[in-house]
Q: What sequence folds into this?
């Protein structure tokens, strides 16, 4: 064989290997949850029942039929290329789709857990369309101002202050963001803030974290606790109770075992819910409808936690058994009765 032919074979083989590997890397891990946790939506919703709908990540709709609270309201889900290479802005069609799937026409409050793009990016537009008040950190307020949401629809929340919404009482508690690789894998107590109105399109990293909250939702029928990001602040949740705890576990599989245990103790341990609902375990770039997927393989390679997809189910099943707690995962969009 001539040199030319050998080179042609080598390069075309290399090309195929790279192509196949790229396809593999941009594919998705299986969901990091136990399939036996899944519950279905309820067909009959009793009058006045407190219900939840889940879109994915920590986008939830909680309603008692009279008042509706949306958390995050994130539907845009920019793809990998847009997220890494381009500037991003809210996807108006995706927001229309998401609101329709959740059967929302109006709402009372949109609460953003923190100001990263996968939480607060669409929140001002969702508030605009539903007539809701947007509640969140000073950084989230800057995203809202940049989007042109009127000041009387923006509430900058105070740590541990209570806000009534119909029969609900919302109490945001600062609990920090989960450790991220860009912050050396440590909980960052001096989180970065957005200090001027943010006008998209902007880079993904322009959505700086701001304060991260756990949200306590009190209702005469029962109490709900939601942590959007797998971070904690020592003893911050002391004195709060929850019947249901919706726990954001993004990145959990890649954390040190010591951190995993502290995170559990500082959330579930302190508030003693009867049921834990893991959220924010689905891929950020996965589609907005259909089955949930786990993390994109490329991301899980970067942030770790992909080595053992059964790590989270094992950890959670063990804790739940030890402490007599029920575990469930929600269906997509279908309404589930909590109380
Ligand atoms: Zn985040």
A:
């Amino acid at each position: 064989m001539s040199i030319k032919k050998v080179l042609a074979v080598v390069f075309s083989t290399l090309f195929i290997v790279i192509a196949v590997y790229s396809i593999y890397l941009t594919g998705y891990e299986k969901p990091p949850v136990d399939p036996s946790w899944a519950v279905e939506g309820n067909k009959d919703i009793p009058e006045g029942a407190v219900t939840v709908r889940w879109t994915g990540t920590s986008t939830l709709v909680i309603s008692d039929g009279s008042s509706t609270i949306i958390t995050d309201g994130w539907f845009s889900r920019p793809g990998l290329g847009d997220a890494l290479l381009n500037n991003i802005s809210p996807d108006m069609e995706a927001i229309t789709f998401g609101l329709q799937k959740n059967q929302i026409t109006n709402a009372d409050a949109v609460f953003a857990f923190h100001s990263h793009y996968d939480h607060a990016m669409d929140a001002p537009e969702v508030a605009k369309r539903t007539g809701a008040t947007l509640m969140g950190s000073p950084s989230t307020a800057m995203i809202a101002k940049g989007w042109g949401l009127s000041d009387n629809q923006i509430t900058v929340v105070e740590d541990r202050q209570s806000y009534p919404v119909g029969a609900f009482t919302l109490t945001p508690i600062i609990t920090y963001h989960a450790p991220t690789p860009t912050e050396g894998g440590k909980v960052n107590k001096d989180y970065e803030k957005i200090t001027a109105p943010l006008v998209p399109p902007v880079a993904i990293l322009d959505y700086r974290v701001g304060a991260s909250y756990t949200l306590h939702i009190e209702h005469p029928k029962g109490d709900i606790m939601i942590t959007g990001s797998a971070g904690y602040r020592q003893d911050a949740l002391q004195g709060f109770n929850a019947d249901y705890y919706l726990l954001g576990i993004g990145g959990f599989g890649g954390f040190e075992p010591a951190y995993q245990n502290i995170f559990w103790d500082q959330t579930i341990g302190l508030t003693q819910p009867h049921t834990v609902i893991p959220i924010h375990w689905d891929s950020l770039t996965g589609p907005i409808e259909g089955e949930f997927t786990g993390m994109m393989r490329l991301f899980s390679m970067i942030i770790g936690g992909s080595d053992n997809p059964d790590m989270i189910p094992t950890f959670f099943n063990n804790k739940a058994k030890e402490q007599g707690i029920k575990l469930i995962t929600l269906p997509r969009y279908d309404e589930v009765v909590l109380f």
The two ends are 75 Å apart (CA to CA).
